[in-house]
């Protein structure tokens, strides 16, 4: 279970990216974080594993308060947090299988990863994930021979190698054609349900949020404006985040009075 309490982030530049966000994610739940560009979705996800250091507030994952961990413990906890990004960072000259196996980095001794001497059990596990994400017929191909959707699938299989207890996905389909994007979101949802993994997925597309989440958290100007089961999200809720009724409070330009 993930619990976010009073999370806030103000960047050095004075940009208030998150203010007082509270959120609880339990197992078996895909939560869409929905909002316009700049509403704080990425910052929220990145504060969870402290790729961005929160200014205040706490993040508690399965009883561990991530926000108070030292570097070494943080590294360990991060291996249990699967991240999926918009563009997948694969090693192009490596095979699909080897790319998936690098997901054990941080769990496996580094020498095994660089020398590609993985235990048989890990290779079997990697093949199983390749099968589950639908890329088993491509395992021997070099990563640079894959399409965008296939690359995203490899990235997902690589994430599963970490045996994560939660998945954070930041606009995982934004770089894909709509049809492929829907397939990839469908896959993420299926995996989440099969493995009882909570998923937080940042999206700016209402259609994706509505079709693939159990709950939608609407974000605007860094604040949570609604948090509803997906079936109960109304047009009024959506209007709140999409209708540009006022300027971002913290970034309103200082008007200099011209003489
Ligand atoms: P989203 O993912 O919803 O597009 P972000 O979380 O990326 O939104 O950004 C939220 C706000 O924080 C934006 O106004 C953005 O400009 C600002 N921001 C994000 N990252 C940084 C950073 N590293 N330094 C300064 N401001 C940032
Ligand atoms: Mg973002």
What does this structure look like?
The protein has helices at 41-48, 71-78, 96-101, 110-114, 120-133, 148-160, 178-195, 206-212, 235-242, and strands spanning 2-10, 16-25, 30-34, 56-61, 64-65, 81-84, 166-170, 199-203, 215-220, 223-229. With 259 residues, the protein is of the alpha/beta class. The chain is globular, with a radius of gyration of 19 Å. Residues 250-259 have low confidence and may be disordered. Magnesium ion (MG) binds next to helix 1.
How does the SSE layout of this entry go?
Blueprint: E1 2-10, E2 16-25, E3 30-34, H1 41-48, E4 56-61, E5 64-65, H2 71-78, E6 81-84, H3 96-101, H4 110-114, H5 120-133, H6 148-160, E7 166-170, H7 178-195, E8 199-203, H8 206-212, E9 215-220, E10 223-229, H9 235-242
Parallel strand pairs: 3-8, 3-9, 6-7, 7-8
Antiparallel strand pairs: 1-2, 1-4, 4-5, 9-10
Helix pairs in contact: 5-6, 6-7
Bound molecules: adenosine-5'-diphosphate (ADP) and magnesium ion (MG).
Keywords:
single chain; alpha/beta; six-stranded mixed β-sheet; binds adenosine-5'-diphosphate; binds magnesium ion
Topology, number of strands: 10
| Biggest pleated-sheet summary | 6 strands, mixed
Rounded mean pLDDT is 90
By DSSP (H or I, 4+ residues per run), the number of helices equals 9
N-to-C order of helices and strands: EEEHEEHEHHHHEHEHEEH
Q: Strand order across the biggest sheet?
A: 6-7-8-3-9-10
Name every ligand kind in the structure. Answer: adenosine-5'-diphosphate, magnesium ion
Note the overall shape. Answer: globular
Spatial extent as radius of gyration: 19 Å
Poorly predicted tracts of residues? 250-259
- Helical amount: 25-40%
Category from helices, strands and their pairing? alpha/beta
């Amino acid at each position: 279970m993930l619990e976010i309490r009073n999370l806030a982030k103000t960047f050095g530049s004075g940009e208030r990216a998150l203010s007082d966000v509270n959120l609880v994610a339990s197992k078996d739940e895909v939560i869409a974080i929905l909002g316009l560009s700049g509403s704080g979705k990425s910052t929220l996800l990145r504060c969870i594993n402290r790729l961005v250091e929160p200014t205040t507030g706490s993040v508690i994952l399965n009883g561990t308060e991530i926000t108070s961990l030292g570097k070494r413990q943080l590294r360990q906890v991060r291996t249990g947090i699967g991240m999926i990004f918009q563009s997948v960072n694969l090693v192009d000259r490596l095979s699909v299988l080897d790319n998936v196996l690098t997901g054990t980095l941080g769990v496996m001794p580094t020498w095994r990863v660089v020398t590609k001497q993985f235990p048989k059990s890990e290779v079997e596990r990697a093949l199983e994930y390749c099968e589950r994400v639908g890329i088993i017929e491509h395992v021997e191909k070099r990563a640079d021979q894959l399409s965008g959707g296939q690359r995203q699938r490899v990235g997902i299989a690589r994430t599963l190698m970490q045996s994560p207890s939660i998945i954070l996905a930041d606009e995982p389909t934004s770089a894909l054609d709509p049809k492929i994007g829907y397939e990839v979101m469908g896959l993420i949802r299926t995996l989440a349900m099969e493995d009882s993994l909570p998923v937080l997925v940042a999206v700016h597309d209402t259609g994706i949020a509505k079709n693939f989440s159990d709950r939608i958290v609407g974000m605007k100007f860094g604040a949570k404006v609604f948090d509803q089961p997906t079936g109960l999200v109304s047009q009024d809720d959506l209007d709140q985040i999409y209708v540009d009724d006022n300027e971002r409070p913290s970034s309103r330009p200082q008007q200099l009075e011209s003489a």
